[in-house]
Amino acid sequence: MKEEVSLRDLMAIIKQKMMIIISFGALGLILSAVYTFLVVTPMYDSTTQLLVNRTNDGTNNIQLNDINSNVQMINTYKDIIKGPVILDGVKEDLDLDYTVTELAEMVVIDVNQDSQVFSLTVTGPNPDEAAEIANGIAATFQSAIFDIMNVENVSIISAASVNSKPVSPVVVNNLMIGLGVGLLFGFGVALIRYAMAKTIDDYQFITQTIGWPNLGSISELNKEEQSAIVASQKQKIAAAKAVKVAETAQAANPKRIPDGEVLSVAEVQLERPRTTVESAVGQEMEKQPKKHPKQYSASHSGMNRERLGTVADMSREKIGVILQNSDDTQAVHSGNKRGKR
């Protein structure tokens, strides 16, 4: 197990395990796309703005204390808007299927610092319903605040409109997050495989880390060399099969010598294949200069013919005697067996 990993090793790991890292990145991208487009429900928002102003007492003078008082009252109004006093009335007026808690989770109130204007945003799966709920909450709050706090200092300055563009999920962000997580996970898998590897991938590890000398290397065969080796092996296999088939055929159908016929040594030599040594000797003999055969007289040749004829007759006579003796012996044995019975 390798304990120290340098920056060069990290780059080598990334280059070597690039396919694994890319595969996990693509997998993360696909999973994030499935989650974004098929699993998550798109959400739409709609926003209305309200103004908290001073009480109309017939004068046009605006005091700084009144403004500060109105700003501080906005925090109180936030709690009132998200409470059951307002949301129960909205639920009954719009005949909604949501509970008060669910409606409170759908409402978000944003307040700018030192501003008398605050925004009321409703987020839901239906853009028309979100705009309707936002306008209903603003209208209910404006009419109910006098009964609650005995003041009339809330005005609706901007009604909520339908927003057909979903605010979540953000497709680009989700896809980038999925891709990044997949790449990081793939890189982690590559590091684990590198750390758990027990094989040696580089001769430098042997020479530099272990300190052993490099005695030699075996080059990798290219495609042409591999094809040549495969073709040679196929030829050897085909030749071996052909020899085996020939031997089988010869054993099944051996050549029989007719009765009474004696093959000469020359004929036997012609019948069997020549060995490697005989072939070499034959080639050497062919290289030697040819000598003219000796001329014999007619009487000498006639005498040789008589000798060959005598030898052939003697061979035939001996063969006949041997066959006759074998027949007589077989007849005697069969007679003895009958006598015993």
From TrEMBL:
Pfam families on file: Wzz
Record's subcellular location: Cell membrane
GO biological process, one term: polysaccharide biosynthetic process
Polysaccharide chain length determinant N-terminal domain residues: 3-93
Topology of the protein relative to the lipid bilayer: Multi-pass membrane protein
Membrane-spanning parts: 20-44, 175-196
Organism: Trichococcus pasteurii
Protein name, UniProt field: Capsular polysaccharide biosynthesis protein CpsC
Family recorded in the similarity comment: Belongs to the CpsC/CapA family.
Example of a GO cellular component annotation carried by this entry: plasma membrane
Annotated region (Disordered), positions in chain: 274-305, 322-341
Pathways per UniProt: Capsule biogenesis; capsule polysaccharide biosynthesis
Keywords carried by this UniProt record: Capsule biogenesis/degradation, Cell membrane, Exopolysaccharide synthesis, Membrane, Transmembrane, Transmembrane helix
Keyword Cytoplasm: no
InterPro entries: Bact_polysacc_biosynth/exp (IPR050445), LPS_length_determ_N (IPR003856)
Predominant location category: membrane
GO terms assigned for molecular function: protein tyrosine kinase activity
Biased composition (Polar residues): 323-333
Protein task: Required for CpsD phosphorylation. Involved in the regulation of capsular polysaccharide biosynthesis. May be part of a complex that directs the coordinated polymerization and export to the cell surface of the capsular polysaccharide.
